[in-house]
Amino acid sequence: MHVISVKDIRKGFGDLQVLKGISFDVDKGEVLSIIGPSGSGKSTLLRCITQLERIDGGAVEICGDTLATTDDDGTVVYSDKATLRKIRLQVGLVFQNFNLFPHFSVMRNIMEAQVHVLGSPKEDARRVAVELLRKMGLEDKADAYPCQLSGGQQQRVSIARALALKPEVLCFDEPTSALDPELTGEILKVIKELAAEKMTMVVVTHEMAFARDISDRVIFMDDGIIAESGTPDEVFGHPKNERTKKFLARFE
Predict the structure, then answer these.
(1) pTM (2 decimals)?
(2) Counting Cβ atoms within 10 Å, is residue 1 exposed (0-12), middle (13-18) or buried (19+)?
(3) What are phi and psi of 226, to 5 degrees?
(4) Is 216 exposed, middle or buried (0-12, 13-18, 19+ CB in 10 A)?
(5) Model confidence pLDDT, tens digit, residues 6-47
(6) DSSP string covering the chain
(7) What pLDDT does 178 receive?
(8) Contact 106, 146 (CB under 8 A)
(9) Taken in order 83, 89, 93, 98, is the CA torsion positive or negative?
(10) Count of CB atoms within 10 A of residue 57's CB?
(11) For strand 169-173 and strand 200-204, is the pairing parallel, antiparallel, or unpaired?
């Protein structure tokens, strides 16, 4: 089953065309990594999937529900509010800069959306939060505030908060880019564990070794298009596109 289906989506900002006809599918339990140079459209693509940006053309389906489609006359039509809300709950997003509520404790950061978005009773929300903090190795940080945590700990709280809503797919936008190198490993370890549990994930990353190790498929984006896609061995071991070869040569 396609958890995400993207067909010919386009997105521009003024005269700048950022996405120039992107198409791909993500199946349940699959890990898709998206790599490419800065400015290639990777983050914009994630923002379109997670409803933070509206597409200018094409179609997006999430878990069988239509997020947006394009009429014969070229008009983009988004689904009704109820469908968009349903879709929003199925797709979690972990930002590169954590986006935690600074005035909430770690526990409340994880509980808040469960209570106010899912309508979960507070005790149920707390139980889920405790389980996720244990999973992230942060049991002792429940009462701490974001400013009292390292960057790696804050990012693990962000992942726990996203998982608390029980999404069908989890998207990561450069999850380690705001971290010191020594903290990067702890986040990559968490994502690897989620992959082992068959969590469906779309990961925008600049960590090439990690992408090669964790992914079922890899997409290389360049200048708003998918220049190459395939298995990690195909893209990293035997790239066909000259632009892919040149990009990957910098990481050897």
Answers:
(1) 0.92
(2) exposed
(3) -85, 105
(4) middle
(5) 999 999 999 999 999 999 999 999 999 999 999 999 999 999
(6) -EEEEEEEEEEEETTEEEEEEEEEEEETT-EEEEE--TTSSHHHHHHHHTTSS--SEEEEEETTEEEEEE-TTS-EEEPPHHHHHHHHHHEEEE-TT----TTS-HHHHHHHHIIIII---HHHHHHHHHHHHHHTT-GGGTT--GGGS-HHHHHHHHHHHHHHT--SEEEEESTTTTS-HHHHHHHHHHHHHHHHTT-EEEEE-S-HHHHHHH-SEEEEEETTEEEEEE-HIIIIIS--SHHHHHHHHTT-
(7) 74
(8) yes
(9) positive
(10) 18
(11) parallel
Number of other CB atoms surrounding residue 68 within 10 Å = 20
pLDDT band at 252 (very low <50, low <70, confident <90, very high): low
Give exposure, 9-28, as e/b (b: 16+ Cβ within 10 Å): bbbeeeeeebbeebebebee
Instruction: Count Cα atoms within 13 angstroms, Cβ side, for 45.
Output: 37
Burial class (CB in 10 A: 0-12, 13-18, 19+), 168: middle
How far apart CA 129 and CA 194 sit, in angstroms, is 17
User: Two tokens at 239?
Assistant: 């790239």
- Cα 79–55–217 angle (5° rounding)? 100
How many Cα atoms are found within 13 Å in the side-chain-facing hemisphere of 12? 8
Report strand pairing: 200-204 vs 76-78: unpaired
CA distance 153 to 187: 9
Nearest-angstrom CA–CA distance, 48 and 36: 17
CA proximity to 87, closest of 210, 11, 2, 4: 4
CA dihedral 108, 114, 119, 123 (to 10 degrees): -60
